UniProtKB/TrEMBL annotation:
<keyword id="KW-0812">Transmembrane</keyword>
<feature type="domain" description="Acyltransferase 3">
    <location>
        <begin position="22"/>
        <end position="336"/>
    </location>
</feature>
<keyword id="KW-0012">Acyltransferase</keyword>
<dbReference type="InterPro" id="IPR050879">
    <property type="entry name" value="Acyltransferase_3"/>
</dbReference>
<feature type="transmembrane region" description="Helical">
    <location>
        <begin position="94"/>
        <end position="113"/>
    </location>
</feature>
<feature type="transmembrane region" description="Helical">
    <location>
        <begin position="187"/>
        <end position="204"/>
    </location>
</feature>
<keyword id="KW-0808">Transferase</keyword>
<dbReference type="GO" id="GO:0016747">
    <property type="term" value="F:acyltransferase activity, transferring groups other than amino-acyl groups"/>
</dbReference>
<feature type="transmembrane region" description="Helical">
    <location>
        <begin position="319"/>
        <end position="341"/>
    </location>
</feature>
<dbReference type="GO" id="GO:0000271">
    <property type="term" value="P:polysaccharide biosynthetic process"/>
</dbReference>
<protein>
    <submittedName>
        <fullName>Acyltransferase</fullName>
    </submittedName>
</protein>
<dbReference type="Pfam" id="PF01757">
    <property type="entry name" value="Acyl_transf_3"/>
</dbReference>
<feature type="transmembrane region" description="Helical">
    <location>
        <begin position="159"/>
        <end position="180"/>
    </location>
</feature>
<dbReference type="GO" id="GO:0016020">
    <property type="term" value="C:membrane"/>
</dbReference>
<feature type="transmembrane region" description="Helical">
    <location>
        <begin position="54"/>
        <end position="74"/>
    </location>
</feature>
<feature type="transmembrane region" description="Helical">
    <location>
        <begin position="266"/>
        <end position="284"/>
    </location>
</feature>
<dbReference type="InterPro" id="IPR002656">
    <property type="entry name" value="Acyl_transf_3_dom"/>
</dbReference>
Amino acid sequence: MSMSNIPLAAGAGPMPLTHRWNNFDALRMGAALLVLVSHQFSLTGRSEHGLFEVHSWGGVAVLIFFSISGFLVAQSWDNDPRPHTFMARRLLRVWPALAVAVVLSACVLGPLIGSMSWQEYVHDPFFRRYFRILRFKNELFLPTGFDGNLLARVINGSLWTIPIEMKCYVLLAAIGTLGLLRPRWRWLVALLVLATAVGYLWPTPWRYGWSERRDMPLEFMLCFFAGVVCHHHRARTTGRAAWPLLVAAWAAGALAFAAGQQVLALVLWVPPTAIAFGTSAWPVVRRLGRFGDVSYGLYIYAFPTQQLMIWLFKDRLPWAMVLALSIGATLVLAFASWHLVEKHALRWKPRAPRQAAPVAPTALA
């Protein structure tokens, strides 16, 4: 794999990442589509052979999302390290499109595909509870909908990762406010991330039971903060300079894998590989974002679209055709979300106290 360096200003180190000079848009779009395809298996009762049988391919895609989100959001903090403006930017990126998706799901899609009258529907406790998603709570069920599907009443099973993402933002702001992202403390943060990964994910005899418990939110958060560490050491984690780190990470991951620790291997492999690819600038790949950053829309609209297509066509069309229809319809909704909601919300982002180079908008798992 040939990697291109991000263009350098004389003596200034890597330039801030913009859409024109990196593969992040393409990587996020690919990860969002991978989540969609992975869910198509579970939603139709088909067996999916995940990676090492510890993560579905959709789970691996979410690890990628968290890794690149940590990298890019850390740059946003560096540009303007004020907690209130940092969190305002994060909310403006996440909440408006999420609110539209939740309202459309609960108030439009739910009644159309359900078996209740409107009066019964809106007075059902599950209808009111569904809007707790807008407070970053996990809610899966509406009062009715998608009868006959394997996951009846589950409108959007992808949104459970968004509260985890928000917790990562809060933790990053807290760590930054305490001064632990300053240069002299960054290696300490890196060591803490590595120690947490090894200590939690590598079973030891005296921690049997706790160590056997899978904690996917922690795995996602470890990838997020690994991305943060990669940003703070980006001179070694981007472009051609990333090769020594990649070799070391893959060697360490191979040792973990050989010892039977597949999850730890993934946490060691995914973040540096995703960052190295994302910060590269391949001529065709880097241009996929010129139509807009549709990855978030793909993520939040894929699941309900798939449920609808399966509900309508599962007994009429082949599996691959239903998948193709789901991808096409989700792409339309994602483009609409970006052009009608997301990019307009981003115009309200607080300005940094000094002129800073633009940061590519972050994407969610």
